[in-house]
Design goal:
The protein has 14 helices and no strands. It has about 300 residues and is mainly alpha-helical. It folds into two domains: about 140 residues, Serine Threonine Protein Phosphatase 5, Tetratricopeptide repeat (Alpha Horseshoe); about 90 residues, no CATH class.
């Protein structure tokens, strides 16, 4: 055998060996794939050629109506929100996406997922500020904060956020139907903050830290005059001022209380307190107490 022929034969054997190894590797992969495909209903080749329906876009109106069905008929807001989100994912620039974004916020609200509701509603207001439904989206933001207002014994940061959001509804959409509801909720939120101030003020009164107590009751009188706590705040101011000998302010607090709430049991207590000090309720119109009520037309 010639050297050239021997070289060619050796090359052929090497190539054949490589081909054999590649063939065995491919065959092994196919063998490994066959058990995996056996879990399904078709062959591996059929599955490879078949269209994966998981990623097929569904009509926007179909997804939207399925969301409505889950919301209204099945009473399943969490599942409904997923359908509405899917509309936005599959058809992001459609009118259905705009409607679904709002319905998604509403579904989150009904599910008690307030943070997700705030996120979806905020996105709606940002993307569609001129929409007729923007007022409702803004209201959902405010309502989500409002529904999370904590007990007065806890931090009232969420209450502050609720007030800001409710005021935004009233400011931006004063003639909308949601402004009326926002005003009612706003009074409730303000009453909560006033209650917190009263709770802390009473604590300082028990400690006989009258100056600190006065600062709390003063906040109620100057900022929350329309809440149910203002009568007690005026009576407590009367008590605290009498305790530290600032009789003039005590007289004013009692007089303003009697003028605005003559039938209040708190006025009877304040009246008897100043009388026990040898004076009568008498309003000093220069006092911050008097000015606070005159500013609202209550004085």
């Amino acid at each position: 055998m010639s050297a050239q022929r021997m070289t060619l034969e050796l090359r052929g054997r090497s190539a054949g060996a490589r081909f054999g190894r590649q063939f065995r590797l491919a065959a092994g992969l196919i063998v490994l794939a066959i058990p995996l495909s056996g879990c399904g209903t078709g062959s591996l080749w059929d599955k490879f050629l078949a269209k994966d329906d998981t990623f097929v876009d569904e009509p926007a109106d179909k997804l939207y109506n399925e969301g409505l069905f889950l919301m209204n008929q099945k009473q399943d807001p969490k599942a409904a929100s997923k359908k509405f989100e899917e509309v936005d994912r599959q058809h992001p620039y459609s009118d259905w996406a705009r409607k679904s974004l709002l319905m998604s916020a509403y579904a989150f609200y009904n599910a008690g997922d307030y943070d997700s509701c705030i996120g979806a509603a905020t996105r709606y207001v940002t993307l569609h500020p001129g929409s007729p439904d923007a007022a409702y989206a803004q209201y959902l933001i405010a309502a989500s904060h409002y529904d999370q207002i904590p007990d007065i014994s806890r931090d009232q940061g969420r209450t502050e956020k609720a007030i800001a959001a409710l005021e935004e509804v009233i400011r931006k959409y004063p003639t909308s139907e949601y402004a009326v509801s926002a005003k009612a909720k706003l009074e409730g939120a303000r009453d909560q903050l006033a209650g917190k101030e009263m709770d802390v003020g009473r604590y300082y009164m028990e400690k006989r830290d009258y100056t600190a107590a006065i600062n709390r009751f003063k906040t109620v009188v100057t900022r929350y005059q329309t809440t149910r706590h203002v009568e007690e705040a005026l009576a407590r101011l009367t008590e605290a001022y009498m305790a530290i000998g600032i009789v003039g302010e005590a007289q004013t607090a009692a007089a303003v209380l009697g003028h605005n709430f003559p039938d209040s049991p708190w006025y009877k207590d304040a009246y008897n307190l100043v009388k026990s000090g040898g004076v009568e309720p008498s309003e000093n119109t220069g006092s911050y107490i008097s000015k606070a009520f005159k500013k609202l037309g209550l004085g």
